[in-house]
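hey so i finaly got around to running the thing on P-loop containing nucleoside triphosphate hydrolase protein from Lophiotrema nucula. pasting the sequence first so u can double check i didnt mess up the copy paste, my clipboard has been acting weird all day
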Amino acid sequence: MYKLGPEPSENAIHAVIAATGCPRTRAKIYLKTNHNDIERAITQLKAHQKSIVDLKKAKPEPATLRTVGPEEASDFPPSAQPSPSLASSASHAVPSKSGNPHQIPHHTSAGDPAEPVTEPTLSLNTPSGSESNLEVEETERQSVGSRHVGPNMAVASKDDGSNDSQNDMQNDGTAVNVKDSLGWDLRLPVLRPPSTLQPGGADGSAGFSLYDVCAAVQHGALPEDVKTYITHFTYTNPQIVRSQINGEIEGFPAMFFVVGANNDANIRIFEQAGGNVNATWGEPAIPLLGFAIMNSKYIEQETTSTVATLLSLGAEDNVIPGAFYKPYDKDIPSEGPKEEVLIEDLSNNQMRWCQPSRIRELLAETLNITQRYHLHRSSKLARPTGRQKDVAARHNSMDLFAVPYFLIGQSAATELLTKSFMHYMLRRQKQPLVVVFAGPSGHGKTELARRLGTLLSLDLHISDCTIVTRETELFGPRKPYVGAEEGSPLNNFLAANSRKKCIVFLDEFEKTTQDIWNALLVPFDNGEYQDRRNLKMVDCKDTIWILATNALDKRIVEFCENNQAIFDEENRPKREDLLEELTCEMKDDFISVFSPPLTGRISAFVPFLPFSSSETCVGAHKYILELTKEVRRPVCTTPGPQEHLLGNIRLKVRSDASICKILTKEYDPALGIRSLRKAVTDRVASLLDSEYLATHDVIAEGLPIEDYSIFVANGRIKVKRMIPPAEPI
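ok and heres what it spat out for the 3d tokens, dont ask me to read them lol
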């Protein structure tokens, strides 16, 4: 590590640039190495450039692999050359020809051409309260904790605010773009975490720091802390946040660090602050979505939720070649789709990043069936119009458009629900929104309600109507009857959310009785409800009521069997006509089961259609992902609720589509997707248990991660422990 001169003045930098024509970065380097002696810096730079011109005229020797020794450092200014001791300790083998833009030609003292040598990294370390010092550090791969630091990436210190780090220099002084994505190993530099993420810093006077918040996110900052930090500056100085949120940290867009941390809540926070979910890096441009998919390889975590989040926020699906996910229920070859299939896609500028075979292989390895389904679904979904966005934004409901990206199937249900919400918000109805969710069990009714509450940040109350027969059991007795002072869960929820937007989900509503229907007429009609504890009126005009029922299952299933075009998303006009016809028939059936007064207060009927065979494959994969997450947890041998003996396991799923198709043979339409949970337990988890118990190793905490592979052999699902190769003696 070498101390150089102080930061040069702008006049000195411009003088060197004018005399030599070199880029700004090289001018600063030579000035610092010569302690701001302008004439000496110019002399050395010109001599350096001349030697490179002479070198290019010479015929280069064949490429070889060699070790860089301490004597081979003459390419740098004298004051920046490594000492023999440091160069010796840092020597390492480098290829003589490489796409690495950090490599520069080198010549020996005899003037003979030789192989390139990797240029030491110049990183700017800025201690708090001191001037910047430029330090030359050896180039090597480093590992900080469990994070990898790629070539020429030491633990990153804060940037000095310039963009000089974006370009490296050839020896003739011309700029070379270091953002060569073809040579990037998809690992981000490790940022130094801030001492605190509170607004204003430790002393309360610091301004917004994109570096600090990205570093905090990279090191696992909680979403609530990130939101507090960004929200503070969004309110106090929104232009500063908007202008910086898409800036670069250590040469990478800030959103890459956020996505790299694999926390979908933080991704949403950044996007709401103006973060660009279609950010790219390098040339050819690697899209943020592609990085999110392949990132799972290096962080050893599932990134399925991150991919769905990016798509739901507007990430373009057309940056991924369609051959990777159409059809989504087909296994991808380990080397990726055949080149003849990709020719047209790879000629598209947005997909040129997939041209290298190593990228296609990595994409094929990391792109699971659920992610392929999300990409396929995204390519079919209609984007919201400008007016729809305007109405939703006024009601703080923009995430309503994200709901379809987190469900399996049920595009008809999400479309009709979105349409109902838009009408409700546009006309500012004084009555609550009352929606009937109808369809077979296990087809996503409860899941849709939960997603709606999560995405819109609404409180959700679920009442199980199978355990209530009288209205007092659902709402509680009125004062002065015994027990009135305690109320009921639903009564107390409505009172606590008076004049607030919230969701009440009444599950198995067909189990309710006439007195419950009558009790709901007033709340459904004018949005008023009487608190049973004190008889005060509660304003529930903003309450969203969802009545989930299986009473209309037969009608829905029969209609779909007779009208297969209802599943055709390509023919939207025909599909919309059939959906309108189905909802009318559902309304007629609802009247016959429930009372006409109750039916007259329903805002919309939302059918949940049967799953296709391809969608059931994705449903099976849902439970495989849950199993993968469960066994990845560390082993805990402490007796009690925290005991977890099956852990420290990394599951690798090969040919996931084939595995899921075998599992769907046990799919029961009457039970829906949840019938596949047992299939995964019986045909995957049980095999994993047996393989895990077959080893003679003891179960203990702190042991290394074990790899297990799930694959198909002879039409059967197999689970095998992957034994790591023995280390050489």
